[in-house]
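Lab notebook, design round three. We kept the backbone fixed and only want residue identities now. Task for the bench partner: fill in a sequence for the structure below.
Input structure tokens:
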């Protein structure tokens, strides 16, 4: 991207957010101050541009409150990414706050921001055991659960039909501690209302709601080489295999990738298994929620902690992007200032320290993780 294009794009961002076009110049200056020389990490130096050079997408989860209120945040999004996902705004509880009422302001804002900046959007998610609205427990029964599921998927999926790159149709359906041989999370209200068939049913409904979206199964705890994650990985692959064999429409595996800088396990044969498994089923793979927590590290020095986090980005993505079926890498947030890992619980315990799991620090300056992420795109083969 030329500098002129970059500025035009920056200005477009601000216009899209409903502010006067003049602000585009200010936003450019702001970025310069925050990033030092913007040309180092913007334009051809951006994550989006390096990912695109290898046929991939680079993205982040978006907090819609910041999207409305924070100029620099919008600027960084527009500069760095070519795909976005709502951190919370498309979840069940957010989109259907009452049984008869849907709420789309936040999700609409995200989708139109992305579109006006030429970016794609992931949908996250239709079916999960969390983020359910308050009315859910008292209203949903075995008798009406199927109708509620269909209404929800058809309404939310229909709202954004043709505009979503990929939908996480079912999120986190495997939970080994529930003790079933197939690993399904039998404690999920969806399982309890509808039995194991709720999964295939949700995918068939999603295909009808938005035939163009890549239908994705998304889960976590399947990345590391250790016994516990190996079990979950196998159960996820079995589920996908069974769905494919049944003719259920599914196109992709989402690997959340919430990683841990203090983990004693590494990456290797497990990721190969996951990638081989996905490839043999004809599925694409997306890294959907990458971040690296650093709370278990025993060093206090911030530079050393940052290096450890960046090292995990490098190791993990180095292996993961060997798989040409991996088409997108999204981090779960943009700046350390807003990561879910520094939520209320964390701050209560550690008022003096924040975790630094993301590619930008709390001043929106790139962290070592940014450069590790960018290098991982550079080192990957074209797909
Ligand atoms: C998290 C959000 O980041 C938080 O803001 C929210 O309070 C809880 O959910 N796996 C997922 C995401 O699929 O939806 C979760 O997001 C993080 C774990």
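Proposed sequence:
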């Amino acid at each position: 991207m030329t500098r002129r294009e970059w500025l035009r794009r920056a200005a477009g961002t601000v216009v899209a957010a409903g502010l006067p076009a003049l602000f585009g110049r200010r936003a450019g200056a702001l970025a310069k101050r925050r990033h030092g020389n913007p040309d180092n990490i913007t334009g051809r130096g951006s994550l989006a541009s390096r990912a695109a050079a290898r046929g991939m997408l680079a993205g982040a989860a978006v907090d819609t409150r910041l999207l409305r209120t924070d100029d620099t945040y919008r600027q960084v999004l527009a500069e760095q990414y070519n795909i976005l996902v709502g951190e919370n705004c498309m979840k069940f509880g957010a989109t259907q706050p009452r049984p008869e009422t849907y709420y789309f302001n936040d999700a609409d804002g995200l989708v139109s921001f992305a579109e006006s900046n030429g970016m794609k959007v992931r949908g996250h998610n239709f079916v999960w055991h969390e983020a359910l609205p308050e009315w859910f427990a008292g209203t949903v029964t075995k008798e009406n659960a199927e109708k509620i599921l269909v209404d929800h998927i058809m309404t939310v999926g229909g709202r954004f039909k043709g505009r979503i790159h990929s939908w996480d149709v079912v999120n986190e359906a495997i939970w080994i501690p529930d003790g079933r041989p197939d690993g399904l999370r039998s404690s999920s209200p969806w399982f309890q209302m509808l039995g194991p068939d709720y999964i295939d049913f949700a995918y068939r409904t999603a295909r009808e709601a938005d035939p163009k979206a890549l239908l994705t199964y998304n889960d976590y705890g399947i990345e590391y080489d250790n016994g516990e994650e190996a079990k979950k990985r196998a159960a996820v692959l079995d589920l996908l295999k069974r769905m494919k064999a049944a003719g259920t429409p599914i196109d992709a595996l989402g690997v959340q990738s919430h990683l841990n800088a203090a983990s004693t396990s590494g990456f290797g044969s497990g990721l190969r298994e996951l990638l081989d498994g996905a490839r043999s089923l004809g599925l694409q793979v997306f890294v959907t929620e990458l971040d690296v927590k650093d709370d278990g590290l025993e060093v206090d020095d911030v530079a050393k902690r940052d290096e450890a986090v960046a090292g995990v980005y490098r190791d993990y993505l180095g292996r993961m992007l060997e798989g040409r079926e991996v088409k997108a890498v999204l981090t779960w947030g943009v700046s350390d200032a807003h990561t879910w890992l520094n939520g209320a619980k964390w701050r209560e315990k550690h008022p003096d320290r924040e975790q630094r799991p993301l590619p930008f620090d709390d001043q929106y300056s790139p962290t070592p993780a940014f450069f590790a992420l960018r290098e991982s795109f550079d080192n990957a083969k074209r797909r």
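Keep this in mind before ordering anything: The chain has one domain: 3-379.
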